Amino acid sequence: MLGRLLPNSKRSFDSLSEQEILALAIASEEEDARIYLAYADNLRAQYPGSAKVFEDMAEVEQAHKNTLIDIFRSRFGERIPLIRREHVRGFYDRKPDWLRNNLTLDSIRAETEAMEVQSARFYREAAKRVSDAQTRKLLGDLALAEEGHEDIARMLSDKHVTEDVAAEEHTAAHRQFVLTYVQPGLAGLMDGSVSTLAPIFAAAFATQNTWSTFLIGLSASVGAGISMGFTEAAHDDGKISGRGSPIKRGLACGIMTTVGGLGHALPYLIPEFWTATIVAAIVVFFELWAIAFIQNRYMETPFVRAVFQVVVGGCLVLAAGILIGNG
Q1: Domain with CATH 1.20.1260.10 in the chain
Q2: DSSP per residue, 259-275
Q3: Alpha-carbon span 196 to 262, nearest angstrom
């Protein structure tokens, strides 16, 4: 009665008949197989070894589905009721394909582990609710199989993802991380930190008003962040360059640009001018060395060259701002 009054409400697992439990198991195995194939398609270009692992795991799920269909046919005939996970309360939501396109390899593996844990739990509970001995044995076997998928995945990984392949995939993942997040973020941090030095310190020494200096620094930082973020997102969609999602790159660049400028603008919330200026100068020192470190660590720029480019250049911009402010 409640189900008729609330057509969108989900069924409780306890309310399912044995026929519906088997139908749900069939739909679940088919859905998981399709998810693994989607993972394989998304990974194939960059991680062909891992893609093959997910293809093989999809074949395992298809074999489970076929076994379940056979036992359903022998007990209930040819017509399988339409019941899926989203119709039953308590199931772990499976993401649609368009939400999986940008998942990292580690995220996909974590998602897979969560899927297998829930599938094993489902089969254990389902086995308690059926009276047919053959069906109960099959569900128990499938629970053990789902619990053992981690071993299967490890075995398939050993088969398809050799040490050389794993090293290549790790290198590719690191390269993608650098291209999508580090490179645009570093460009933003450099722009935000260096380009705002002159206007902020010029305003500080020209007005010697900390609040006005803070407002100028805030507006310069936010404006530069918006400009840099949109520029990064708009100039390259990432399809040919392989630099990844333009939205992710734009956010990384825009946020880090704003952070770079705010670092030496926030000290001017201190009312006393010279205290605020000394703190801002100390912040600038750490900002410039942090940029040099990131360049050396992720962009493989020689440390001396990074220091010369960033620290020396930043100090020159800072000096120019102070001179202009005192002019």
Answers
A1: 2-161
A2: HHHHHTTGGGGSSSHHH
A3: 9
The residue type found at 224 is A
Q: At residue 99, what is the residue type?
A: L
pLDDT tens readout for residues 157-213: 554 444 554 555 566 666 677 777 787 888 888 888 877 888 888 888 888 899 998
Residues 180, 248 contacting (CB under 8 angstroms)? yes
Q: Residue 169 has which token pair?
A: 């995939």
- pLDDT per position as a tens digit, 117-141: 788 888 888 888 888 888 888 888 8
Three-state secondary structure of 121-155: HHHHHHHHCCCCHHHHHHHHHHHHHHHCHHHHHHH
CA distances, 70 to each of 75, 142, 267 (Å): 9, 14, 72
Look up the CATH superfamily of 2-161.
Ferritin, core subunit, four-helix bundle (1.20.1260.10)
Question: Which are the contacts of 105, defined by CB distance < 8 A and separation ≥ 6?
Answer: 43, 47, 50, 169, 173
Report which of 22, 15, 167, 150 is spatially closest to residue 83, judged by C-alpha positions: 22
Residue pair 294/311 in contact (Cβ under 8 Å)? The answer is no
- Supply 278's token pair: 């000394």
What's the pTM?
Answer: 0.49
The first and second tokens of residue 47, run together, are: 């991680």
